[in-house]
Design goal:
By secondary structure, this protein is an alpha+beta fold. The protein has helices spanning about 5-15, 20-30, 70-85, 85-100; strands at about 35, 45, 55-60. Strands 1-2-3 form a three-stranded antiparallel beta sheet. The two termini are about 25 Å apart.
């Protein structure tokens, strides 16, 4: 498993219900996901173009600014990350190789 993915899973597992909306977006974006707003104000959808078997999942930030993500959503995000860990790790490895190639 890629170290960045391992770190995100560890952070989410440790924080669980105290993960705020900004942190959740930062974690997911660091793994190559992109976030879009859903139909309601706090609803967030996340996508990843580098994962063939993954389409979309969501989490909810509530209505307050930078509110904590509710535990069931954190658990769902963790499930998605673990379920697709091989593809996410391969995606991140590819980014690492690309960055190393550009640094020459």
């Amino acid at each position: 498993m890629h170290q960045k993915l391992q770190n995100v899973i560890a952070a989410l597992s440790a924080a669980k219900a105290s993960t705020n909306c900004t942190d959740m977006a930062t974690y997911l974006e660091s793994l190559g996901f992109y976030i879009r707003g859903g139909k309601s104000a706090g609803h967030k959808l996340f996508f990843h173009d580098g994962l063939s078997a993954f389409k979309v999942a969501s989490y909810d930030c509530g209505h307050a600014k930078n509110q904590d993500v509710k535990l069931p959503y954190v658990v769902n995000v963790l499930r998605v990350l673990r379920q697709h860990q091989d593809e996410i790790s391969s995606y991140l490895d590819g980014l690492d190789k690309k960055e190393q190639g550009e640094g020459r």
